[in-house]
Amino acid sequence: MLEDLTTAAFSPTSWPAAYPKGYAVVDVETTGLARDDRIISAAVYRLDARGEVEDHWYTMVNPERDPGPVWIHGLTSEALEGAPLFPDIAEEFTARLQGRVLVAHNAVFDWQMIAREYARAKCEAPVRQRLCTIALSKELGLPLPNHKLESLAAHFGVVQRRAHHALDDARVLAEAFRPSLRTAAANGVRLPLHECRPLTEWSDRPATPRIGQQAGPRSYGGYPQTSWRPSRKRPACPYPNPGRYEAGGRLKQGMRVAFSGDTSTERELLEDRATEAGLHVATSLSRLTSLLVTNDPDSGTSKVVKARQFGTPIVDEAAFGQLLGDVEPASEG
Prior knowledge:
alpha/beta
C-alpha cells in the first residue's frame, strides 16, 4: 500500500515534472452502451496541474432519438426536446477539453462516446490523452471493495448527491481524483495515461429500432437493461487459418486478426473491411492469432501482453490498411 499523503502540501520542486499541466474530468450520460448510442448530457470539471478545480460546465444534449434508460439517468424525451444538438455544443466542449488530459471513470467508454459524437458532427475531438481513475486506483493499490465510482468516492469521503447525473458524477470524480493525484505525485507513481486517436472515418449504421423492438438483457450502470438493437453477428470465415503473418509478406485469407486500442477508423469499419477481405476477425487473442493490429504496442492491454507472450506479429493501423489492399487468396483444396 502506498503511503497516504492525500492532505500533504507539496512544494513546486516536489511535483513530478512529467505530470500533465491540466485535466478535464468528464462524465457523459448516454442513451445506452452501443456504438450507435448517443450522449444526452455532459459535464466537465477543469482542474489545474495539481488537481484544483478551475471551473465546471454542464449541458444536456438532444440525442435525436429515444433517451434510453430514463430510470437510470432521469432524462426524458420531454426534458431533452429543447436541449441543443451535439454540433451546437461541440465548440464549447472543445474549449473545455483542449490541451488537457481527459479523466473519467472507465475512461475508454466516455472517450469512445465523445469521439463518435465529434465524428458525427464532422469535427475532431481535441483530446490526445486519457486517464482512467479505475486504472489509477489500481496503480495506487487503494483498498476498494470494487471499482464502482461510489466506492472510490466513499474511500475519500466524497458524498454523492445525485448518482448518474453527469454534473454530480463529474464533481464526485474530481474530488476523488485530486487526492489520488497527490498520492501518486508524492510516491512517484507513473500515471496510467493512454493515447487517444480521434475518429477520422465514421459511418452510422441504418437507423436503430426504437423501444418495443427489444433484443436481450444487458447491463447499464450496474442495472439490468433491455436492448432495443439486435446483436451484430459476423458470418463465419469460410477459409482455414493459414498461420501467422510474416513481416514483409502478404495477408492471406483465413488469417485470424485481432484489434486493440483506439483507431482513427471506427473499429467496426476496420473489422468489416477485414471480413470482406476474407480474414477472420477475432475478439480475443490466442496462440492461433495471425496478427494483432494496434496503434499503441506499449499500452500493456491484455491483447498486447498476450501477443508479446505468444510472439504474435503486431502492426499499426496504417500498415494494416496497406496490407488489406493486397490479400492473398486462400489455398484451394
